[in-house]
Prior knowledge:
The structure is a homodimer. By secondary structure, chain A is an alpha+beta fold. Chain A has 2 domains: 2-196 and 368-454, Zn peptidases (Aminopeptidase, 3-Layer(aba) Sandwich), CATH 3.40.630; 199-252 and 299-365, 2-Layer Sandwich (Alpha-Beta Plaits). Chain A has helices at residues 2-11, 13-24, 36-53, 118-139, 159-167, 169-172, 215-218, 225-236, 257-264, 270-278, 291-297, 337-350, 376-389, 403-412, 437-454, and strands spanning 56-61, 68-73, 81-87, 107-109, 112-114, 145-151, 176-179, 191-196, 198-207, 213-214, 300-309, 318-319, 322-331, 357-366, 369-370, 394-398, 416-419, 434-436. In chain A, strands 1, 2, 3, 6, 7, 8, 15, 16 and 17 form a 9-stranded mixed β-sheet that branches. In chain A, strands 11-13-9-14 form a 4-stranded antiparallel β-sheet. A 3-stranded antiparallel β-sheet of chain A has the order 4-5-18. In chain A, strand 1 and strand 2 form a beta hairpin. In chain A, helix 2 (13-24) crosses helix 4 (118-139), helix 5 packs parallel to helix 14 and helix 13 (376-389) packs across helix 15. The longest helix of chain A is centred in the first third of the chain and has 22 residues, at 118-139. The first copy, chain A, is globular and about 80 Å long. Strand 11 (300-309) of chain A pairs antiparallel with strand 11 of chain B, so a sheet runs across the interface.
Amino acid sequence: MSSATNAFVELHEDRLLEELKQFLRIPSISAQPDHAADVKRAAEFVASSLRAAGVEHVQIIPTSGHPLVYGDWLHARGKPTVLCYGHYDVQPPDPLDEWVSPPFEPTVRNGNLYARGAADDKGQVYSQIKAVESLRAVSGELPVNLKFLIEGEEETGGESISKYVAENPAKLQADVALVSDTELYAEGIPTLCIGLRGLIYTEIEARGASRDLHSGMYGGVAPNPIFGLVELLSKMKDAKGHILIPGMYDDVRPPSPAEKHSWSILPFDEKEFLKNEVGSSRLTGEPGYSVFERTWARPTLEVHGIAGGYTAPGAKTVIPAKATAKVSMRMAPDQDPEKILAAYQQFVKENTPAGIEMQVRVLSASPAISVNPDHPAIRVAAKAFSDILERETVFIRSGGSIPIVGDFATHLKVPTILMGFGLPDDGLHSPNEKYKIANYYAGIMTIAHFFEQYGQ
Amino acid sequence: MSSATNAFVELHEDRLLEELKQFLRIPSISAQPDHAADVKRAAEFVASSLRAAGVEHVQIIPTSGHPLVYGDWLHARGKPTVLCYGHYDVQPPDPLDEWVSPPFEPTVRNGNLYARGAADDKGQVYSQIKAVESLRAVSGELPVNLKFLIEGEEETGGESISKYVAENPAKLQADVALVSDTELYAEGIPTLCIGLRGLIYTEIEARGASRDLHSGMYGGVAPNPIFGLVELLSKMKDAKGHILIPGMYDDVRPPSPAEKHSWSILPFDEKEFLKNEVGSSRLTGEPGYSVFERTWARPTLEVHGIAGGYTAPGAKTVIPAKATAKVSMRMAPDQDPEKILAAYQQFVKENTPAGIEMQVRVLSASPAISVNPDHPAIRVAAKAFSDILERETVFIRSGGSIPIVGDFATHLKVPTILMGFGLPDDGLHSPNEKYKIANYYAGIMTIAHFFEQYGQ
């Protein structure tokens, strides 16, 4: 049957591309209020595409932000259920003058489709819908039960879907979730992401004097909250990147030897990575751990922003009354965010310099996610991916967080297959975002093939 | 003769006050371009007041900013020459709605004259001019030679006067400078400031990666310039306020035992100071040094501003490409700014974390100023002050810098008498700035008395 869906895709290549272009022409920029109508139009486009593919009970669900699109097809009796996720909103296209062709006029060059949202995530979510269409076209039915939940706020925080998942676990119940919003490790390498680091994100506010003071008059006796933050933060991590907060490494589950081995044979050139991706004079981080271990599997502590006092051009001799820093910690599997957060808050308390008051605000806290590569759905997905791209599937992790995966794990108790078809150089969030057209078709085929094999 | 000038002031109290009010009605806000004509009008007011007092060769000197006003009277053969300085520009009056009476409508309440610029510095510079007028009125001539150099850019950096002093040392040559722009230590206490700390003001820019990076993808390997600054700055000073840059205390000249003793008997309540002036939970700084020593006579290192990464509300997981900090050092007498700066730059170089590049920009560097209290002019000034306020003159220092004093020392090689008549609660730069009317008259009398005694 896989050859039948492949043949369907090959036969309808032009139409499939044209329809994706229609989707991409809608400037569904979720961050910009004057594009709210476009975001709604994109939701309607998704809903009609789902209906056209044969998905039932398609609903546009209003939220306090942008709408969710739900649909299902539940007639594969005795077969597992897959919850499909993607998003139809896009990043703002700025800076506009760096685009070779206009961001909302999809244009083909060198086998790529250039448009805002091409890879992130319209091209990918559309592959899911077109996989359903191709399966229905060749057999009239589907090999598994499917639920779709597609959001329009991914680029602005995804609050509505998070709330919806928490409030509707029965409606969304499934055996596995399929998220198509990631990328291949490299061109032509079928890739499943099976681990995401957890994230605690905080804001620390330091206060000293009750008002801004003149550093000539008060320098030497007045506490300086900028320096207070400097003292505190400098104690949190040493120069080698080792976090000094007690207990920070207690529960870290290291990657298995097999996983470490699989990382060691991934094509990777550290010099190229340093030069082309990071661009600093050298890489940093814990000695004795590889780049993959440091970015995928080790806890980190970063300061994302710091602000205080006078920062405009020139000199002002002020001792400011307050200063703030945004500080996050990434966590490895098995680390408990509550426990880490408690240790962090205790550390701040114990290391607050004299004369300074520190207040910690927690903006988010979510644990690491790891999916067992031996889970049946993952094994099937890996096989399907491998069949289509004709190369062995690699299992990687990501150092970032994808909040919806945590929501699915927490509220639905289902693992997520992160099966995406983007490429590292697709330019997500940048000018000239592209999606390789061959990967668009391969995505449709792979998803269809996964549904078929998972239904057997 | 002093009783004659006193009598003159007493006789003409009303007129002297009315004329100061006229001066204060001119909104000579140097920072606001739409007040440039008012600033010019204030310069013209100063020039005509000088002429009316009998000062000769009065000139309004154009600059690239606001004009200087020069004038002299050089007929006291064989007598010393005093260079008088003040400024006729004022701070912006915002926030306007906190003023009880309008800032440019001088209003008398409780023996105070309320107006923007009343104490800083129109009331004070006008005392100098009126002292000349009173001396000329009673004797037809002056007991010393006088030069006036009055600027209109003090509140915006004073660049033009600094350039003018550097370029015209012969024209401005004098035996001593008299700056009337400071305050009494407390109500009724004649006060001369005989020391100012030096100041080196720098900006450090830290750079890591060539672009902003996602902390999920790159956290653990990419250098973070915010943390780089944190590491560097934390090494510059310990928790007790002791600067750790080598050589930072090598040349510090401590106050003499006599000076320390004079400070120890100044009326001062540390608890009140903490509560009412600083408002933090406690004072900080080097143990074993008094508040006066820490703010007037010890080197300090402060971070005045810090900026980098994401600082708007909410969370963004960025490792920024750069971060900056404004860092200054205050210096004690005998410390050489060049030497301190070299040690500072060397320290930055040696303590720059791996993967980070630091660039230091020096915004200003000026040495501490100290005036020998046994200098004849200072002794005469102290005696004159003491005669008028009928209390012993105290010698204090200030932890801040007054750049014009450094310019006079550097380019004219003259010491400066900092003889001011403001009060600590005059509210300079704040709404409801005031000048005690009795201090306005006492200022005229004291300056006249000083000229008389210095001419003998």
